[in-house]
């Protein structure tokens, strides 16, 4: 799992603000997925991107969006933050074929 | 969509005992079942996985079994050690033609395993 990097590691935002989270996958991995993990629960799927195209979307509002860049890194954007958006946001990197997913260390987002 | 149920939510064992965590899934098309270990404040780490073309897989002290008919899979840890204490998550995914992942891991709710010295 070494090699998936996320930034920032911690973030505090105010309700209504916007946030951008970043992820760099393992070298050679072309697929990036985003997950939200609320304390005490399992990760919940938000998005998957492959070759800059959205390949899957979980049950999250339109305030959540993402994109993937030509170097396969990715951004997750959340608009109009709510207190309930406070969570650990995890990025997972995988090769599309064969597909073991390896997670980054996450970004801990706190909305106050 | 897929739904994964995991039991128990907490499990406490003595060092050296075995631990078993069970998961059921709802989508019969799911064909890939990983297990992740997450220590407090750290990332989930893949510890073992199984694909639907096999019934059992072992890696040293850990093993996973899969019953496709019952849509049930389990994690077995033998000779538990205090460093096995963590939260364990099962998950399910499906791969299409050519082994292409649909990308969506559906996780169980997690099991807090505590191994007492």
Order of helices and strands of chain A: EEEEEEEEEEE
The fraction of residues in strands of chain A falls at over 45%
Radius of gyration of chain B using CA atoms only: 14 Å
Radius of gyration of chain A: 13 Å
Q: H/E series of chain B, N to C?
A: EEEEEEEEEEE
- How many helices of chain A in DSSP terms? 0
* Range of helix content of chain B: under 10%
Through-space gap between termini of chain A: 32 Å
Report the uncertain regions of chain B: none
Low-confidence stretches of chain A: none
Helical residue percent band of chain A: under 10%
Total count of strands of chain A: 11
Question: Would you kindly provide a brief summary of this structure?
Answer:
Chain A is mainly β and 112 residues long. Helices cover 0% and strands 51% of the residues of chain A. Chain A is built from no helices and 11 strands.
Name the features.
heterodimer; A: 112 residues; mainly beta; seven-stranded mixed β-sheet; four-stranded antiparallel β-sheet; 11 strands; 51% strand; B: 117 residues; six-stranded mixed β-sheet; five-stranded antiparallel β-sheet; globular
């Amino acid at each position: 799992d070494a090699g998936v990097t996320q930034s920032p590691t911690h973030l505090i935002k105010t309700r209504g603000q916007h946030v951008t989270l970043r992820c760099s996958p393992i070298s050679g991995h072309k697929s990036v997925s985003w997950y939200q993990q609320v304390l005490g629960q399992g990760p919940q799927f938000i998005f998957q991107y492959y070759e800059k195209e959205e390949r899957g979307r979980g049950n999250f509002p339109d305030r959540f969006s993402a994109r993937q860049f030509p170097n396969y890194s990715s951004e997750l954007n959340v608009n109009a933050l709510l207190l309930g958006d406070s969570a650990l946001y995890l990025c997972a990197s995988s090769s599309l074929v064969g597909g073991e997913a390896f997670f980054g260390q996450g970004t801990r987002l706190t909305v106050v | 969509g897929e739904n994964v149920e995991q039991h128990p939510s907490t499990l406490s064992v003595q060092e050296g005992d075995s631990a078993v965590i069970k998961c059921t899934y709802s989508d019969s098309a799911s064909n890939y079942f990983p297990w992740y270990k997450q220590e407090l404040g750290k990332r989930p780490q893949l510890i073992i996985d199984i694909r639907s073309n096999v019934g059992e897989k072992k890696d040293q002290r850990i093993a996973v079994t899969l019953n496709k008919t019952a849509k049930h899979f389990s994690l077995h840890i033998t000779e538990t050690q205090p460093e096995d204490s963590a939260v364990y998550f099962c998950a399910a995914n499906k791969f299409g033609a050519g082994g292409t992942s649909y990308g969506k891991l559906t996780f169980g709710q997690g099991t807090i395993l505590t191994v007492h010295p």
